[in-house]
Amino acid sequence: MCYHNANRKNGVRFMEGGAEKVIVALDAMGGDNAPQEVVKGGVMALEESKDIYLKVCGTEEAVRRELAQYTYDESRLEVVGCTEVIATDEHPVNAIRKKKDSSLVVCMNMVRKGEADALVTAGNSGAVLAGGQIVVGRLKGVERTPFSPLIPTTKGMSLLLDAGANVDAKPSWLVQFAKMGSIYMENIVGVKNPRVGLVNIGAEEEKGNQLVKETMPLLKECKNINFIGSVEARDIPFGAADVIVCDAFVGNVILKMYEGVGGALFSEIKTGLMSSLRSKIGGLLIKPALKQTVKKFSTEEFGGAPLLGCKGLVVKTHGSSKSKEIKNSILQCVQFKQQGISEKIQANLKEEEA
User: Is 64 exposed, middle or buried (0-12, 13-18, 19+ CB in 10 A)?
Assistant: First the structure.
């Protein structure tokens, strides 16, 4: 039997067959394709995992109109009506403070109060960052929370942090990013003793800006991470490290360049395969293998970027996310909760203090 309470002011847990559900607050109004693709992604996640209970937050009429198109387990989905929406161009802090009944802030308050284990949004990045720290709050001892997306490599995937949250960073922040990233990769991705690399313009320790030079010795002194030294950007796609550490300015440039080059390359391959009859015939022969390669390097397969270090899980997906990326972002919340990532990060920081 499934128990639920539609009143979002009351913290409740959802049980079915003795197993506790992972409650995910879904911001239905965030992103370029809201609410259509967001709601569709939510329904897809419910179909794929029985461990999820969704609280879909947004303009009630719009959300229910989208839900009416699908068949889903209604006992595991609750619509939470909201009257406001935070636009992509709004000032982040002002929006969080003034729009208390926006879908994003309602989701964040659910996480803060323990009414949801996680939230997923494709909304305003600045508002997500501000709300994550102001509303949800940071774990004790966490100096800053980084956006931490998984990125594809020839060896599987790597975690890039910070990819957009803290443009001007301090050495101690990067050290914490390395620790949190290592915990995530080991427990979520299953990489034992993950290799940590610091983004630099060369392999030599004397190279780099002041931030890199000051961070390098601190990372070398860390006993609970597997620090391998500098990593150049050109080596990242080849899996040079499992955890890629940098400030948000560098990380966001890497991420955007990564996506842009991938898109351009696939576009050029497609154009080349359609350029002649011979290439079209060859294209048909390699199509299955090419589809698998494209899938491996598609960002949709990796879900969103968790804001590591918050008291609850906050996951930010691309503003242009379609249903598949929304679905995968929701699914990653299950493992995050079941593996107790926040608790492990907190325990790690306490060990350092001791």
Answer: middle
* Residue 111 near residue 128, CB atoms below 8 Å: no
Cα separation of 216 and 198, whole Å? 8
Burial class (CB in 10 A: 0-12, 13-18, 19+), 289: exposed
> What global pTM score does this model have?
0.85
From the DSSP assignment, how many helices (H) and strands (E) are in the chain? 11, 13
Reported residue count of the chain is: 354
Q: Tell me how many degrees the CA angle 222-228-233 measures, rounded to the nearest 5.
A: 125
Distance CA 41, CA 45 (A): 6
Q: In sequence order, what are the residues at sequence separation of 6 or more whose Cβ sits closer than 8 angstroms to the Cβ of residue 333?
A: 22, 24, 52, 117, 118, 120, 313, 315
**Calpha distance 286→49 (Å, rounded):** 33
Tell me if residue 267 falls in helix, strand or coil.
helix
pLDDT at res. 88: 85
Q: What is the pLDDT of residue 299?
A: 61
Q: Record the tokens describing residue 130, joined without a space.
A: 């501000």
d(CA 80, CA 25): 9
Q: Which residues of the chain have pLDDT under 50?
A: 1-18
